[in-house]
What we know:
- The strands form 2 sheets. Strands 2, 3, 4, 7, 8 and 9 form a 6-stranded parallel beta sheet that branches. The protein has a 3-stranded parallel beta sheet with strand order 1-6-5, covered by helices on one side.
- By secondary structure, it is of the alpha/beta class.
- It has helices at residues 2-24, 30-39, 91-100, 111-117, 145-163, 179-187, 208-218, 236-240, 242-251, 259-265, and strands spanning 67-68, 77-83, 106-109, 129-132, 169-170, 191-193, 197-198, 223-228, 255-257.
- Helix 3 (91-100) links the parallel strand 2 and strand 3 (106-109).
- Its EC number is 3.-.-.-.
Amino acid sequence: xxxxxxxxxxxxxxxxxxxxxxxxxxxxxxxxxxxxxxxxxxxxxxxxxxxxxxxxxxxxxxxxxxxxxxxxxxxxxxxxxxxxxxxxxxxxxxxxxxxxxxxxxxxxxxxxxxxxxxxxxxxxxxxxxxxxxxxxxxxxxxxxxxxxxxxxxxxxxxxxxxxxxxxxxxxxxxxxxxxxxxxxxxxxxxxxxxxxxxxxxxxxxxxxxxxxxxxxxxxxxxxxxxxxxxxxxxxxxxxxxxxxxxxxxxxxxxxxxxxxxxxxxxxxxxxxx
Length: 273
């Protein structure tokens, strides 16, 4: 009986392992399946999933952090945001377009890229604001609280030094909010900013005007709109359509504001205030 149970157990394990392996090769691929298995072994405390760091006093500033996707407002306000820069690739083109149309925006900057390309931003951020988008655009939700804090602190210092303004907003790469990200954000007194609408370049290949029409039709009062000023060539669909998007939204009565101005006008409490 014991031997039979052992053989059945082994067959069951092998069958299930085969199913897992088969599933890993379908859809998202083997890496996703491996990641899912590994994530089940995350530490209960102190790891990327945990928003606490053991039994000692939690060093988290005021002890709270807020997360916003958009603003609740009846005013026709929209906040245009750009992630992942700066780089010579398209950041200057975006800044030129925003300058031409007098549109403020919020740039979530990667610290390492600011260190390399701060000259692209100097003297060009008068109407804009900046936020922290990590040091090197790694997935912070896979790192523990100490690592995330070090990463964001390093990026914070690079942005403050490079552009002359210290960021008060944080958008983690990919919008991933692991517990360690929340802990570090509270410790650094950041407001976490995600988005409520985003560019969908892949749906409109070689059709900037069509993509702009989608954005113009989809924006609602209080929308935080996600775009990118670096990336692969498909991003150009959205960037080339910025003039049509801007004029279209203004035609609907919308006013462009920074994220902080959007939250201020909507009556949300500000970080550090």
